[in-house]
Amino acid sequence: MPTGVDSGIELIVNGEPVPAWRQGGFVSPMMMRLLPRFAIPSMMAAIVIFPVRGLVAADVNWASYLGDKSASHYSTLNQITVENAGDLEVAWIWQAGDTRGDRTQIQCNPLVIDGVMYATTPSLNLAAVDAVTGEEIWRYETKEPTGVNRGIAWWQEGDDRRILIGAGKWLQAVDADTGELITSFGEAGYVDLARDMGVDATGFAVQANTPGVVYRDLIIMGMRLGEGPSPAAPGPIRAYSVRSGKLEWVFHTIPRPGSPGYETWPEDAWKYMGGANVWAGMTVDEERGLIFCPTGSASFDFWGGDRVGDNLYANCLLALNADTGELVWHYQLVKHDLWDRDLPAPPTLCTVTHDGVEIDAVAQSTKSGHIFLFDRETGEPLFPIEEVPVPSSDLAGEVTALTQPLPLKPKPFARQMFTPDMITQRTPEAHRAVMERYSRLSPHLPFAPPTTQGAIVLPGFDGGGEWGGAAVDPSGVLYVNANEMAWILTMVPASLSASPGEQVYMQNCVGCHGLDRAGNPAANIASLVDLSQRMTRDETIEVIEKGRGMMPPWGFLQPKQRRAVVDWLLEDDEQPAPDVEAAPDHAALAPAPTWTTYVNDQGNLERPAPLYTHTGYNRFHDPDGYPALTPPWGTLNAIDLNTGDFLWTVTLGEFAELTEAGHAPTGTENYGGPVITAGGVLFIAASLDEYFRVFDRTTGKEIWRHKLPAAGYATPATYSVDGRQYVVIAAGGGKLGTKSGDTYVAFALPE
Q: At residue 506, does pLDDT exceed 80?
């Protein structure tokens, strides 16, 4: 039956007539699905139907990133239960079809609202998909996308329904019904997040990888920034009008003169230091008007001789007044970070009972594998936190913090020490090789500072807890997955190189691409070996200027610096990397601090040049590519926040070849979080074995698994339409050397 005025039928939605432009001509797959159920015979002059865009009885949305603005990962749905989850089947598959090269990812936790899924693609475009059939409704192409996207934000007032999406440095507002850019937002539809930082950040890496959070008529944003040793932009938290894109307030995470915390940095550090940004997402207590913001480390991640002090408000959980941006309370979880211990996930709001008193709390998971639990209003810890003495550094210019805070409860959900008895026993050959490498590294202690000898970081740079975050149920039980992977951090003097091009490489590129220029395929970082055979000089310069894929724009480099590093890369393809381990005393080679001049559209900028860089993000593997320590290598944990006690821990993931060879399931690295429901189940993908799993959240027993087209390194979403519950996961793969994918897969019980 046709819709619109030509049919003589008036459609009523939420008590209001549907505008003619929404009725006539084009009928979406969603409308086509709904009309046969709700339309009354056409001989009637006027009809009233259930709201097409409103909730139908028994419909439940997934309307916010990670389920709700408290980041609970929890749904009240209970159709899928422990008893019937084994019957789950594929309901639909939607293929985006816009992968970028050999290594792409989808890390998006989609929204599902009124029967429509809104999700991002491998190329960071935005799509609306019928959440019952998997049919695409519309697609919007984002502006200049780089990096990854983990989700989107929703705002609605009457018929005005908006999706706020970040891609690269651009915040964009899109009409949820049409997929069209809302040009009255920002400047012709765009807000440039590289502006309004308090300093000139033109040309610096800025990416909106995780969605902002909507509070009333504000969209409050964090961002991903460069982490050094090249210069980085600062990380203010900013609120923009959802309607206009106008900047409403700013909280500077690197304090200005006269502000509390200014004394924890060198004088005028705010003018040149970067980082202390919120890249992991935020949560909102709308009743109290509080927004909780987990900040990352200051830049440079691994050497802080140019930022001596505790560095507030880096590595903090901040509670801000959501209306004004004023600080209510803070707690710094890592002082003067030298280990890339960013707070990796949005904090989780929950209610717990301590000493017979019910308390509204906020729980923050960390890369180190800890849970910090605070009173939501006051910031008082609900379990004791101890200041633990930590080792000092022998790197030139470095001044480490004397102590670091560690909670006494709950116990860590990931191992903290890599001792000799933990060296892999998988094969005698693997054990000997790892033991030999282990013996040449600095002795491992928690918070042991970086060294030129090489230091073990456990949990590794990705955690421990990672960006998937934790789930919490109404009873106060928290569920969190963990990586058990050791990494090796090796520092080298930034002046180890001689030529101008190599100096630029060592200061800006080596951290990702490595001394050997081999990159990191597991992290989608391209090899630069034999670059001259794949790219021209002009193409390489363009990538540096504009970014591509996972690489952000490096526009802060002067033209002569870009030319120098490109010439060195293209002309020295066959030159071996410096033998770092052969150098007798790198600390002694470190030069005096220097300042480097960079350039942007506003002119020259001066930034301190770190004395040290690092040799890359290197996992500690055995010769066969398996983790160097004994299993488990990935776990799933349930922790009672009322008592601080663990309820259960199970492995998450497996290597099929090891299981077939008789090894117990080992667990694997995992990225993406769990979803829990009132039906008593926990949904999670995350593991590199490409399975989507269901667990009994009471016992931790696995009760169902399904092989995905590619690994699901994302957090799923669950929703219902017409009383049928679905769960959907992005199968994007691409990390950890696994194949890439471009699909979303939805599951449901048989009809």
A: no
